Amino acid sequence: MSNKISRRAFLKVTGVSALALGAASMLGGCQSSSGSVEVKVGDKVSNWNNLGVQLSSVFTLSDAPDVAGHQYVAVLVTAVNRSKTDSMAIGAQNIAEIDAAYPLTDEAFRAANTAPYFHALSASTTDFTVTVDGQAAEAGAYVSLYDAATESFSDVPSLPPQGTGYIELVCMVPAGWQQMTVTYNPTFASGKSITFVMSASDLKNS
C-alpha cells in the first residue's frame, strides 16, 4: 500500500535496492508488441509497447482489516519506460490526495484508515483488473521510484521517460486463494494488455 504501510517490510522481503533498479534498465527476455502478453513470476518482457517488465515477487502483507477471511497480497513488478519522450500513467493518479485523506503515519491512524485508504486506492486504479479463483477482487496500484540522493522511494502516478521503478499492486483476496491473474490495460496502448499470472505457491511471507 502506501510507503507508510509495511514499506520497510515490503522492500526487505522483495529485495528491492538501487542496484536492482539499475539492473532493471537492462531487462532481457522477449520483445512483444502483440495484443495480449502473459507473464508469470520471474518472467521478463524487455519491450512491450515501450514498457519493459518483470514480475518480481508476490507475498502476503497482512489481513484485510474490514473483511473477515481476506488478506492483502502484494505484487511487485519491476518496470522500465523505454520511451525517450512520453510518461506512462500507471495505477492510481491521485496518490497525494489519498495519502492526505487517509493518513497512515502511526498506529492509531493505521487502525482507522487502512481499509478506507485501500478502497480509495483501488477505486482510483482503473487500468488493472484482478481475478482470484474466478472471482473479481479489489486492487490498488501505484509506481514507486527510487531517489538516489535521499536513498528513499516515493509514490508517483507515472513512470517518466527512460525511468525505472516498481509497479506495486496490493490486492485484497480470500484467505486460502489458489490462482490469481492481474490484467493491465494501459492507457498508452489501447486495446492491448499484459496479464500477470500467479498461484499461491509463488507467495513469499512478509
TrEMBL record:
Signal peptide start-end: 1-20
Positions in coiled-coil regions: none
Keyword field: Signal
Entry keyword Chloroplast: no
Record protein name field: Tat pathway signal sequence
